[in-house]
């Protein structure tokens, strides 16, 4: 599988020179499976650039994609209205979310963001065809790709994903606050012996106490989880908007002392698993 980071920033976009080494767009990750399926984790502002790249690649051929949301905080959905492939009738997208009992939560959450007076085009008017899937927690399949989805501790809820194909796995655990037993356990299940753990590392340990209840982790907690679970490669993700490149680099240098294969997620970075 091939992973490409399109947005790595947490909370809000940060288009400022001192952050651009790692990038200013919010959460969006593309996974191409070995069978060529397109899986997209979250629709933050990074998804706009992914859309541009998909148009270049597919030209007039139809695009079929699967968009899996961790939750609906703005930084994970605000790129959706600007994802241009949605505006072409031959394209098809399936939107997924899990962890709550309500039906049609995915459709409602996205439609409300684009409703009057927030956006000029109603979601129902988008030309592409779409499916909305409200998942129960557990395992589901997208063709030959197995996806485990489990809830994580975050205000208003969040889910993590573990995507497995051809014996390789990618785990996505962002927007999660440690210290709640069921959630810590779910994180461990999602990350157990994974080939690649992409993990919330928004704060430094010093910053964490003043952000209790905000729903995020320190990079030391992220590393501890990855090491305990036996993750082979770890990507620090969801960088704090106030962490300039120099801060992220400093965090990475410290993290590299704890694990032989750790990176800080950066816009444009590709990783083959
Ligand atoms: Zn977030
Ligand atoms: Zn969030």
Furnish the topology, listing elements before pairings.
Layout lengths: L1 E6 L20 E5 L5 E4 L5 H12 L5 E5 L5 H4 L14 E7 L6 H9 L15 E7 L2 E5 L2 E8 L5 E8 L2 E6 L7 H11 L4 E5 L18 H11 L4 E4 L7 H12 L5 E3 L5 E3 L1
Parallel strand pairs: 3-4, 4-5, 5-6, 10-11, 11-12, 12-13
Antiparallel strand pairs: 1-2, 1-14, 2-3, 7-8, 8-9, 9-10
Helix pairs in contact: 4-5
The protein binds zinc ion (ZN) (2 copies).
Detailed description of the structure:
- The structure is a single chain.
- The chain is an alpha/beta fold and 273 residues long.
- Helix content is 22%, strand content 28%.
- It contains six helices and 14 strands.
- The protein has a seven-stranded mixed sheet with strand order 6-5-4-3-2-1-14. Strands 7-8-9-10-11-12-13 form a seven-stranded mixed sheet, covered by helices on one side.
- β9 (158-165) and β10 (168-173) form a beta hairpin.
- α4 crosses α5.
- The longest helix is centred in the first third of the chain and has 12 residues, at 47-58.
- The mean pLDDT is 96.
- It binds zinc ion (2 copies).
- Residues 10-11, 27, 73, 75-76, 175, 238 line the site of one zinc ion (ZN).
Small molecules in complex:
zinc ion
If you compute it from the alpha carbons, what radius of gyration comes out, rounded to the nearest whole angstrom?
Answer: 17 Å
Largest sheet: 7 strands, mixed
Structural class: alpha/beta
For the termini, the CA-CA separation is: 5 Å
Mean pLDDT: 96
Q: What shape does the CA trace take?
A: globular
Total of helices: 6
Strand order of the largest sheet: 6-5-4-3-2-1-14
**Helix-residue proportion:** 10-25%
The SSE string, one letter per element, is EEEHEHEHEEEEEHEHEHEE
Write down how many β-strands occur, each being a DSSP E stretch of 2 or more residues.
14
The low-pLDDT segments are none
How much of the sequence lies in strands comes to 25-35%
